[in-house]
Amino acid sequence: MAYQTTNPYTNEVVKTYENATPEYVEESLAKGQALYKEWRNDPVASRIPVLRKLAKIFRDETDSLAEVLTTDMGKLFAEAQGEVILCAEIAEYYADHAEDLLAPRAIDSIAGDAQLENHPLGVLMAVEPWNFPYYQMMRIFAPNYAVGNPIVFKHAAITPTSAVVFEDAVRRAGAPDGALTNLFVSYDQVSAIIADKRIQGVALTGSERGGVAVNEVAGKYLKKTTMELGGTDAFIVAEDADMADVNAIAPRARLYNAGQVCTSSKRFIVTANHYDEFLESLKAAFASVKLGDPMDPETTLAPMNSKKAKEKLQKQVDAALDGGATAYFVHDPVDSEGQFFLPTILTDITKDNPMYGKEMFGPVAQVYRVANDEEAIALANDADYGLGGIVFAGSAESGAAIASRIETGMVFVNTFFSSLPELEFGGVKKSGFGRELGQSGIFSFVNQELVVKRDHPNDDENGGLILPHKF
Ligand code: NAP
User: Fold this and answer.
1) Which has fewest Cβ within 10 Å: 18, 133, 234, 287?
2) Is 361 in contact with 276 (CB distance < 8 Å)?
3) pLDDT digits (tens, 9 = 90+) for 6-54
């Protein structure tokens, strides 16, 4: 597998990287393990200054860091800037909150003076995708740095420069050797690393296919995992939705990051009273996007991340059409060699269509017509995935009542879906398990060690030892 940066707008091969040697992998694991042993005895507070410095680097160097993202995978420069700032915010969030979150928790117990202490687990293996190359790394790095878990990571083969730059920023922030090590490794090497007894946890963000492969190995070796996988998120337009709000948000919910977001709205489920207006409005918005150089501030839709991804999406659209779907809208062709996918709206996708329920990772909207809110909820739940979702309804409360009935990990009502440091991120069903970010995210790879202490063994009321049946 070649780790290579190919600019998807120009198709220029910018840089090719050598794979890590077995010796380098071994050295990285040894360094990580030694650091874990050291960190286990250090207070959380001792690691906070590095997170603050890292946040400062991301704020001070926003533009140069953002340009790396745009070159690696083609995202709009303005969106890349937003990703860099979000990374700074995540580092700051854990710098601000980690000590409190990880403080021991006292337990009221007859056994004695009991508390749960939060200790690091050990070295983690992270496997990360190309669609938000820094943000995905920061989601796992910042909380685990605070906890004291060193990380070795494999980034996507198409975003190696982002991996190198992220690792370098962490080093420049003052993190010790072994705290975060980028490894350009093959799938087989990933499996061997997971099997290594020094690895205590595995975090993967990526596709269902990648998640299954990595989780299988992790399961075999009994390694704790978090799986952040794909989705077919519903965007429900309820009967009493305010269409001005819907029309303002829907195009962005599908086209942001060129539609390559795990939580992009992939299925627009629209009640019959709004269906025609919704389609007209989405079509006008899709028709007006400007495809072009992602560094140009005038551009509103970037190329896809690679030729391979574009071809895969085209095959999916073709399969949907062969299966009876209607191409309600396809954007006019663009005069560019860049890996652009023309924004497309598909309707009439029936349950027997091969693309029904499949994730389409790019600027393709599937729009479904339903009779009422009940049907909308039923269709939203007729999915193998459950990652995010958006509901537009007449009020926050009525929208929330619908949201709570959707079998999914995260729902936003009457607003755009956004990932923020304080909000738990994760899914259910084939979208994976575990949570990143927020308070829960810091506990994914923590040894919650129970310590019960007394000066002497327990006495019961009669002066005897506590009853064996209490065990
Ligand atoms: P992918 O193919 O699963 O790749 C993700 C990462 O896993 C890459 O580093 C990839 O390496 C690696 N990988 C894949 N198969 C592997 C194997 N058998 N052994 C070891 N490593 C393996 O995912 P993708 O298609 O590039 O990314 C898009 C998917 O990610 C979408 O489904 C999207 O919804 C999902 N996603 C989910 C979240 C979330 O938080 N839930 C966030 C972002 C994206 P290579 O690059 O070398 O193949």
Assistant:
1) 18
2) no
3) 999 999 999 999 999 999 999 999 999 999 999 999 999 999 999 999 9
Q: Which two structure tokens, joined as six digits, stand for 218?
A: 């992790």
Please choose from 262, 313, 428, 429 the residue to mutate so as to test ligand 1's pocket, defined by most ligand atoms within 8 A of CB: 262
Q: Which residue carries 């560094």 as its tokens?
A: 295
Ligand 1: which of 182, 229, 419, 437 to mutate, most ligand atoms within 8 Å of CB? 229
Residue 189 Cβ < 6 Å to ligand 1? no
Are domains 3-229+431-451 and 234-413 of this chain identical in fold?
Answer: no
d(CA 34, CA 24): 15
Beta carbon of 409 within 6 Å of any ligand 1 atom: no
Q: How far, in Å, is the centroid of ligand 1 from the Cα of 227?
A: 10
Quick check: is 228 catalytic?
A: yes
462 contacts: CB under 8 Å, gap ≥ 6? none
Architecture field, domain 3-229+431-451: 3-Layer(aba) Sandwich (3.40)
C-alpha–C-alpha distance, residues 253 and 263, integer Å: 9
**Catalytic pick from 92, 128, 228, 359?**
228
Map out the domains of the chain as residue ranges. 3-229+431-451, 234-413
Q: Specify the ligand 1 atom closest to the Cα of 361.
A: 31
pLDDT tens digit string along 146-175? 999 999 999 999 999 999 999 999 999 999
**Virtual torsion, Cα 73, 267, 204, 439, nearest 10 deg:** 110
CATH superfamily of 234-413: Aldehyde Dehydrogenase; Chain A, domain 2 (3.40.309.10)
CA quadruple 74, 79, 84, 87: dihedral sign:
negative
